[in-house]
Amino acid sequence: MKKECTIYQSMVEPFLDGRLSGSERQNFVNHVKHCKVCHEELEIYHVIYSVMEELDDESGEETTNYMASLERKLGTSGSKEGSGIRIGAAFGLLLLGAVALVSGLMIMLF
Which is nearest to 88 in space by CA: 39, 48, 15? Predict the structure, then answer.
């Protein structure tokens, strides 16, 4: 992992919350598009955030295409550059999402 990755990984949550300035956001997106490690970190946080939002959403609607919503946030929707989701990362994210969902349900029941 590159030294600069630590900086960009600390920007993942502010990016997902919409708290980055225009230039910070652009620098973050450019880095994540080209850095596999930081992109995977962003994918994991995005799935966690999405699942948590679904748990809080009382309408009962589910967002099943987390990667498409992440691509929209990154502005890569429909481009070759942002659509290369790796099978291992996708499976890991799916597993992580399932764990988060089950944990949330257990908390609600107890």
Answer: 39
